[in-house]
Amino acid sequence: MNSLLVKDIYNKVDKLNDGPMGLSEEDIEKTGEALKEALRHWANPTKLSSEFSVRMSNLGKPYRQMWFDKNRPATSSRILPQTFIKFLYGHLLEEVILMLVRMTDNKVTDEQKEVVLEGIKGHIDCKINGEVVDIKTASNFAFKKFSAGTLHEDDPFGYLMQLAAYETAEESTAGGFLALNKESGELAYYSPGELTKPNPITKINNLKGVLTEELPPEKCYESVPEGKQGNFKLAVGCVYCPHKQECWKDSNSGKGLRAFKYAVGVRYFTRVASLPKVEEIPV
């Protein structure tokens, strides 16, 4: 049962308190090769094509963002160097997580298997004990959605849609997420119930019409209040969107987004009624 997966891993790792844990040379070699391949893939990315395609990995994006991806690719901002670095250690940690699973008696199969649903292709991370499992690395805040089982209440990156597409393609229903807290090292396994999963076939069929429209759909998210001075900022789902500048160019009375550098990170304001007492930076 994958519900016991984390306990199995912890029990195995706990053996380090008493000496060698019994990590086999085969597992060491397999993980080493996987880490090298992840590094090669990161360092040599495929040049982004000008031709947009729907994939299972982007199926969870909101309609408006996908419309911009297809119809206004030139408005996409460049990926920041620090974001590329974040992608790198995310890929490497995913391989470490799979190594931890392989150390136990749980069976890992179908790594990066290609699956197809309604003509849409995707690659699953793996199956564990015969069920589709998506590996995630998360901040402490995001990790709580997996550990508490509340992802369906706030899923700005469309993880549930991605899992549902993989499962539908594989005719599976009991899959889930194996998540790592990058800050604490904690693990959590979350298997969402059927009622919390979106319908990927409905999304695919709707996209066929949406993506061919002349104008983009309504905004994916409304801006949210920041403090009590009348300021408004982008919702989390918009912060990480590469089209946010074009999408919100009408904000701040037509002047566009304004960015302010807080200790916890950059916040993008759609309305500035009271000037924040922190540095304003270019968007």
What does this structure look like?
This protein is of the alpha+beta class and about 280 residues long. The protein has 10 helices and 12 strands. It has helices at about 5-15, 25-45, 65-70, 80-105, 140-145, 160-170, 200-210, 235-240, 245, 250-255, and strands spanning about 110, 115, 120-125, 125-130, 130-140, 175-180, 185-190, 225, 230-235, 260, 265-270, 280. It starts with a helix and ends with a strand.
Largest sheet: 5 strands, mixed
Return Rg in Å.
21 Å
User: So what's the overall shape?
Assistant: globular
- What's the helix-strand series? HHHHEEEEEHHEEHEEHHHEEE
Strand content: 15-25%
Q: In whole angstroms, how far apart are the ends?
A: 47 Å
Query: Which consecutive residue ranges, at least 5 long each, have pLDDT under 50?
Result: none
Secondary structure tally: strands: 12
Q: On the 0-100 scale, what is the average pLDDT? A: 93
Count of helix runs: 10
Structural class estimated from helices and strands: alpha+beta
The helicity comes to 25-40%
Biggest sheet, strands in spatial order? 1-4-5-6-7
Layout of helices and strands:
Layout: H1 5-14, H2 25-43, H3 63-71, H4 81-103, E1 108-109, E2 114-117, E3 120-123, E4 126-128, E5 131-138, H5 140-147, H6 159-170, E6 176-181, E7 187-190, H7 200-210, E8 224-226, E9 231-233, H8 236-239, H9 244-247, H10 251-254, E10 258-262, E11 265-271, E12 279-281
Parallel strand pairs: 5-6
Antiparallel strand pairs: 1-4, 2-3, 4-5, 6-7, 8-9, 9-11, 10-11, 10-12
